[in-house]
């Protein structure tokens, strides 16, 4: 009996977790919109199988609430234009290979004429799909009615059933990027501690360059999350979430660029010193430990960025601060070792100085005080822009944005608090 209860508890927990997944929420919304559109069309359309209505609802409901209000009209126009073109072709010629080519060409041309912008392709897609389901016994007015039903149901679904919030998916992307940066730092550090052929160092440089592609993917996920936060009734701190995630990604992008510069410096140093090792053994071991500590700090920074500020941001910030202090001490030791090495042997001193400079840049970007100042600037700027756009609604939005102002007050208090001496350069 106990095993049965445990099994049901696990199933209930899994269902509850699925209900929080944005993909599941979006699938349920799309299915509900298409089903409702079909049921309504069955009553209002003379066609026995009004499939155009659920098709249109699916196309419209795929956008977030913000995208619905800003681009929904163009999307509906594209669907209606495609349906009208398909109706005309189904009445005149039906579906053949040459009529399919003509409908695609005509749809693309009409899409540009009606200025649906990014939805030009959907005109042709809608035309092809509708032509396939309306080639026999179609009625023009029936299909237009079905299209309008699907559009209204899709828009109503976005307005009355809150769309999913993609912040969790964007946070996972940011943390995944941070872990990939850490893994590359570990490999670069391990190779710097030993004998590294020039070809192997060049391979690390190419790997660092490939991180740019990862940043593009994370940026796309973050843009989707930003759109899902705008005008979403499920979110009270939309501006705060957007600024925290966006500034966090900007910092990781800078870290990625600096890591690429470090990899380039080590690749050039490997060419100059081959077949000798890159660094003396103690220097290499210290650099390896430093990059490992910085990698841990990068992951902690990503966790801080993606952590709910009202729950565990304090502990995440404390962990990041401790890791930065540890990395700062290791950096100071590396600086002393490099100075002694240059005094003994001044060959390639510029490469040693470049590595130390780039390490300092990463530590400065991850610095808590630096991030606090930037968050305050971005929050003030975002609040000021919203007030300028909506001066009459400023007081009402002040009540909604109370958590944001509480955070700003805490950030300012933390910034004005007596800070320990900054790391030595």
Descriptive overview:
With 425 residues, the chain is mostly helical. The chain contains 16 helices and no strands. It has helices at residues 2-19, 22-44, 52-61, 65-92, 97-113, 120-133, 140-160, 167-192, 198-229, 238-273, 281-306, 313-344, 349-366, 368-389, 394-400, 402-416. Helix 4 crosses helix 6 (120-133), helix 8 packs parallel to helix 10 and helix 11 runs parallel beside helix 13 (349-366). The radius of gyration is 29 Å and the shape is elongated. Mean pLDDT is 76; it is low at 15-20, 399-408 and 418-425.
Low-pLDDT ranges? 15-20, 399-408, 418-425
Which sheet architecture does the biggest sheet show?
none
Return Rg in Å: 29 Å
* Number of alpha- plus pi-helical segments: 16
* Secondary-structure class: mainly alpha
Q: CA-to-CA gap between the ends?
A: 65 Å
Approximately what portion of the residues adopt beta-strand conformation? under 5%
Shape: elongated
Order of helices and strands: HHHHHHHHHHHHHHHH
Mean pLDDT: 76
Helicity, as a percent range:
over 70%
Number of strands: 0
In short:
This protein has helices at residues 2-19, 22-44, 52-61, 65-92, 97-113, 120-133, 140-160, 167-192, 198-229, 238-273, 281-306, 313-344, 349-366, 368-389, 394-400, 402-416. The chain is mainly alpha-helical and 425 residues long.
